[in-house]
TrEMBL record:
Location of the YjeF C-terminal domain: 5-282
Entry's transmembrane regions: none
Names of required cofactors: Mg(2+)
Role of this protein: Catalyzes the dehydration of the S-form of NAD(P)HX at the expense of ADP, which is converted to AMP. Together with NAD(P)HX epimerase, which catalyzes the epimerization of the S- and R-forms, the enzyme allows the repair of both epimers of NAD(P)HX, a damaged form of NAD(P)H that is a result of enzymatic or heat-dependent hydration.
Family of the protein in this entry: Belongs to the NnrD/CARKD family.
Protein name: ADP-dependent (S)-NAD(P)H-hydrate dehydratase
Reactions this protein catalyses: (6S)-NADHX + ADP = AMP + phosphate + NADH + H(+); (6S)-NADPHX + ADP = AMP + phosphate + NADPH + H(+)
GO molecular function: ADP-dependent NAD(P)H-hydrate dehydratase activity; ATP binding
Annotated source species: Candidatus Iainarchaeum sp
InterPro entries: CARKD (IPR000631), Ribokinase-like (IPR029056)
Key words, A-Z: ATP-binding, Lyase, NAD, NADP, Nucleotide-binding
Oligomer and partners: Homotetramer.
Gene3D superfamilies: 3.40.1190.20
Record EC number: 4.2.1.136
Length: 284
């Protein structure tokens, strides 16, 4: 077990090749957003923008048609894939798997909704996924108990961890939490980023703890930024456990900086513009 520091995180991320061209520095696919909830497209867009600000070249957000139109208004830098219909369903599986072939990492879950059809789609997609994948938010509930065929990153807080593993971790001492997370990561063939006052990140072999961050980060949307960073760093070539560790560290550092300036009045969208500063610090 290691405590994350800036020096460690520098080992996890590689500098950009000066001779590279568009698309060679990471492509991310975000699957999320729905028509039913007005904030859902914003959550998907937030995650997508975070992945772009992590240093990747391209990000596509796949969402039901009306939600995709809303997502496209958040930034001209996002590519919106407009799926037919009002919500996600299993009829979209084939198209999403095709889109994944052109992505270096996929994030599924932000603002997706927990109705029966999107949940069925999320579980089927996760089961058939053949690339680097981050499972967050609503998709965590859809994939409860799953053993992933390809190594994945999951990003639960204590309640989502309970839903995914059927293990209550809240209230336990840090040492006990670490053992549970390590064992669960091995069982489910994934990297777990357990969010909390102290984050625990483990793939069952390597384990990190992260103490950056503060209570203000309980505001809605910061988890979507974190998931977007996980996807971005994965797309840039970091291993799942290193991508998750770097994302937790950067997200927490940004939160701490915002707290110094704004107290507890910051919101998730404030994070996006601060990501480049920390990427620059890491790659210096």
């Amino acid at each position: 077990m290691e405590t994350l520091t800036l020096r460690q995180v520098r080992r996890f991320l590689r500098p950009r090749d000066a001779n590279s061209h568009k698309g060679q520095n990471g492509k991310v696919l975000v699957i999320g957003g729905c028509e039913k909830f007005t904030g859902a497209p914003a959550l998907a867009a937030m995650a997508a923008l975070a992945s772009l600000r992590s240093g990747t070249d391209l990000c596509t957000v796949a969402a039901p048609q009306k939600a995709a139109w809303v997502i496209s208004t958040y930034s001209p830098d996002l590519i919106a894939e407009k799926l037919p219909g009002k919500g996600f369903s299993e009829r979209h599986l084939r198209r999403l798997l095709e889109l994944q072939k052109n992505a270096d990492a996929t994030l599924i879950g932000p603002g997706m909704g927990r109705e029966k059809k999107p949940m069925a789609l999320a579980r089927q997609f996760a089961a058939k996924s053949k690339g680097a994948m981050v499972v967050d938010a609503d998709a965590l509930f859809a994939c409860a108990g799953m053993k992933f065929k390809m190594p994945a990153i999951i990003t639960p807080h204590a309640h989502e961890f309970l839903e995914f593993t059927a293990i209550k971790i809240e209230g336990k001492k840090l040492g006990e939490k670490i053992k549970i997370v390590e064992k669960s990561a091995r069982k489910h063939n994934c990297t777990i980023l357990l969010k909390g006052r102290v984050d625990i990140i483990s793939d069952g072999a390597a384990t990190f703890i992260n103490s950056t961050g503060n209570a203000g980060m309980s505001v809605g949307g910061t988890g979507d930024v974190l998931a977007g960073l996980c996807a971005g760093f994965s797309a840039l070539g970091a291993t799942p456990v290193n991508a998750a560790a770097a994302a937790a560290f950067v997200n927490g550092k940004i939160g701490d900086g915002l707290f110094k300036k704004m107290g507890y009045s910051f919101i998730a969208s404030d994070f996006i513009g601060q990501i480049p500063k920390w990427i620059k610090k890491i790659l210096q």
